[in-house]
Amino acid sequence: MREIGKDIGETKRRVEELVDTPLLLKVNEGRGKTFIYRGRIVAVFPAVFSVRLESGELKTFSYADVHTRGIMFLKED
User: Fold this and answer.
1) DSSP symbol at 19
2) Which domain holds residue 51?
């Protein structure tokens, strides 16, 4: 479910503010599968953004996934 009153542009701006910040990503991959990844946003593009995981793997996600809460960001302390 998306946030009421927010548009995809606002979601994109929020993601851009998190570039190079250590994050925990909670990713809902459907059918009850939820994974938690640790990494940093390394690049933002018009429709997607890339995250470099601690393992060195590069994953790409869409802003729509964040907008609909398929991906949630948790700041590390």
Assistant:
1) B
2) 8-75
What's the rounded Cα separation, in Å, for the pair 33 and 19?
Answer: 26
Residue 65: exposure state from Cβ atoms within 10 A (0-12, 13-18, ≥19) = middle
pLDDT (tens digit per residue) in 17-71: 999 999 999 999 888 899 999 999 999 999 999 999 999 999 999 999 998 888 9
Instruction: Enter the pTM of the model.
Output: 0.84
Give exposure, 25-53, as e/b (b: 16+ Cβ within 10 Å). Answer: bebeeeeeeeeebebebeeeeeeebebee
> Would you say residue 3 lies in a domain?
no
User: Model confidence over 36-51: pLDDT tens digits?
Assistant: 999 999 999 999 999 9
- Please check whether residue 1 lies inside any domain of the structure: no
